[in-house]
Amino acid sequence: xxxxxxxxxxxxxxxxxxxxxxxxxxxxxxxxxxxxxxxxxxxxxxxxxxxxxxxxxxxxxxxxxxxxxxxxxxxxxxxxxxxxxxxxxxxxxxxxxxxxxxxxxxxxxxxxxxxxxxxxxxxxxxxxxxxxxxxxxxxxxxxxxxxx
Length: 148
Description:
The protein is α+β, with helices and mostly antiparallel strands. The protein has 7 helices and 6 strands.
């Protein structure tokens, strides 16, 4: 179970402020200076009218565009559907975030979806992202978890 909603919207660089203003007209910010934060981090920390937290990332890197292209519809019980990333992309995103809770989530994905994971994709994309973040040990940590 999750306590929030994590979304990625692909948005070309330079469009952050304009998009943020439109989004902030409908959702409350959880950050004291959302326009400055979106320009720095390309993330909007929001809350909907029911009080649910929404972390909206403005994707602009090639990996994010490819991840969105690989996403698929998931039918929501009771009606409707949402686009979700596949388990391989979820592993990449969680490993890149590199928080303790994310590593527990990855462990669960490995238990449920090991045979569905595209390890060449995961290793290639995560290596590039981890190097950008200057945290190559993330890849080693995932490899260690996979061996367990």
